[in-house]
Write a structure and sequence with these properties.
single chain, 182 residues, mainly alpha
Length: 182
């Protein structure tokens, strides 16, 4: 056991892979006095490094994120959707947090913050997780329910549309068409 493993022996980031990455990162940083964290990430991990996200470390935490412990409960469910043909090159936790961010904010796919995985990757996982099974329920719905997330919240525009639709239905029910009242 080297110094980094001893130093980080009690480290608990909620994921064994993240714990190991922290130890490797510390070892690499100690080997070169002038090295940077992104530089150390490039030498430690075989995944192509675009930035912090591939080190398992995002620079920003969003209100839509869930904890690692919470994610570990739903990870097996989400992993069902993928055939294991080659090793995954993206952190499933980061993809799920990106989906939660999109559901919470309602932003466009291309407007996804750059510290999440690429939007096309997130979209492909979202599409796969959104496929409904024979019972009419998607993996994403099951995962959101199991994680305790409420799912997408109603925006002001959606609320207005719902109220207008309700009023239009009431007018039609009482025999009033939109053109006659004007």
């Amino acid at each position: 056991m080297d110094w980094a493993e001893e130093e980080f022996e009690t480290l608990e980031l909620g994921d064994a892979l993240l714990n190991r990455r922290a130890v490797l990162l510390a070892e690499r940083l100690s080997q070169t006095t002038g090295s940077s964290i992104p530089g150390a990430c490039k030498s430690v991990f075989t995944i192509p490094v675009r930035g912090w996200e591939n080190c398992g470390m995002r620079t920003k935490i969003y209100p839509s994120d869930i904890g690692k412990e919470q994610f570990n409960l739903i990870a097996p469910l989400l992993e069902q959707a993928r055939r294991k043909t080659k090793p995954r090159t993206v952190d499933l936790y980061e993809v799920f947090c990106a989906v939660l961010y999109l559901l919470r904010t309602g932003c466009q796919w291309r407007a996804l913050p750059s510290d999440f995985p690429k939007w096309r990757t997130v979209h492909s996982y979202f599409a796969k997780w959104s496929e409904v099974d024979k019972d009419g329920v998607s993996l994403l719905e099951q995962a959101l329910k199991k994680s305790g997330e409420r799912g997408p919240r109603e925006t002001g525009a959606q609320r207005l549309q719902r109220v207008l639709d309700h009023r239009r239905a009431e007018r039609q029910e009482h025999g009033h068409s939109g053109a006659q009242g004007l």
